[in-house]
Amino acid sequence: MSAILVVGSVAYDDVQTPFERKHRVLGGAACYFSIAASLYAPVKVVGVVGEDFASSDIDRLGRKDIDTSAIEHRPGPSFHWSGRYDYELSGAESLSTELGVFADWRPQVPDRFVGSEYVFLANIDPEIQLETLEQMRRPAIVMLDTMNFWIDHKRDALERVLAKVDVVSINEAEARQLCHTFSIIRAAREILALGPRALLVKRGEHGATLFTRDGAFWAPAYPLEKIQDPTGAGDAFAGGLIGYLARCGQADDGALRRATIHGIVCASFAVETFSVDGIEAMTREAAAERYRALRALVALEAKALRDEDPFEAAAAG
Questions:
Q1: DSSP readout, 134-155?
Q2: CA dist., res. 240 & res. 288, Å (int)
Q3: What is the pLDDT, as a whole number, of residue 205?
Q4: CB within 8 A of 1, min separation 6: which ones?
Q5: Domain span at 190
Q6: What is the average pLDDT value for the chain, to the nearest integer?
Q7: Average pLDDT in the 70-89 region?
Q8: 158: domain CATH number?
Q9: CA 54/CA 142 separation, integer angstroms
Q10: Angstrom distance (rounded) from CA 160 to CA 144
Q11: Average pLDDT of 177-190?
């Protein structure tokens, strides 16, 4: 089982939904990702926090199989994001983004981490993602997340880093924006042509679609009766996906499809509570139960399609 390296934000969030508000809860892409991925394999975090960051929150990560020794501590405030969701809970309205010590931070990957085989480059400046990759020693799988801001303002750098990674994770709007098309199929083809082996298009309550050069695979979201907070769902999704690949040591289309379902399972735990509480409480047994439920749903659909269709038979006859 190989270790995983994540480079990204360690932050505090203020989150408002129509039902509840939370102030200064633990957040940041690296936190959501690492807690989810640690269910499958050891995780190493490269990040930065300010002097206001509680040691107890670092300890929360350390209690999992997460190495926090490369999280830098600097004078100044930590990254702090504030957002609000409406009743659909589909996307956040950012109220404020205070970068703090994250603003001028450049990741320095320790020598003991440069041989990590699995790497997740969370949503940060693509130029910093490139700098991070240059420090690594031939990882087996690199996964990247990005957002609309970088697509608009750092497209050249983003395209350079896309050519160097294996898996890209973005949502439908970002895929359309990146490729100037309303067609997700066309966007997927163009993104894969830039170099990645696989594209994961996140679709919120509608699950996720995996695109590779050999085809596409759609997996539904896990059905939940109640969603509390969608913040961090995409990073928890990435954690489950990369975590599974690191655990099984494979990355063919079959493994990527299974990993997609594992990612959706982790995202389902993330959205059930505020902050990282849901994935922090997730157990292997609970994750396995949800994985089996989703796998059965996908398998049932596949079997139904394989069964003889009277219409098709009549057309052939």
A1: HTS---SEEEEE--HHHHHH-H
A2: 12
A3: 87
A4: 41, 42, 246, 247, 249
A5: 4-316
A6: 93
A7: 94
A8: 3.40.1190.20
A9: 30
A10: 12
A11: 96
Pair 268, 224: CB distance under 8 Å: yes
Q: Which residue has the tokens 């995996």?
A: 210
Instruction: Tell me the residue type at 294.
Output: L
The total domain count for the chain is 1
Q: If you average pLDDT over residues 190-203, what whole number do you get?
A: 96
Specify the amino acid at residue 28. G
Asked if residue 241 lies in contact with residue 143, where contact means CB atoms within 8 angstroms, the answer is yes
Q: How far apart are CA 281 and CA 39, in angstroms?
A: 11
255: which 2 tokens? 């493994």
φ, ψ for residue 214 (rounded to 5)? Answer: -100, 0
Give me the amino acid identity at 87: Y
Integer Cα distance of 312 and 276 in angstroms: 48
Give the total residue count for the chain.
317
Residue 242, helix vs strand vs coil? helix
More confident residue, 190 or 226: 190
Q: What is the mean pLDDT of residues 200-205?
A: 92
For 293-310, how does the pLDDT look when each residue is reduced to its tens digit (9 = 90+)?
998 888 765 655 555 556
Residue type at position 226: K
pLDDT of residue 90: 76
Cα–Cα dist 13/273, whole Å: 14
**258-272, 274-288, 301-315: least confidently modelled range:** 301-315
How many whole angstroms separate alpha carbon 274 and alpha carbon 295? 27
Are 192 and 211 in contact, with CB atoms under 8 Å apart?
A: yes
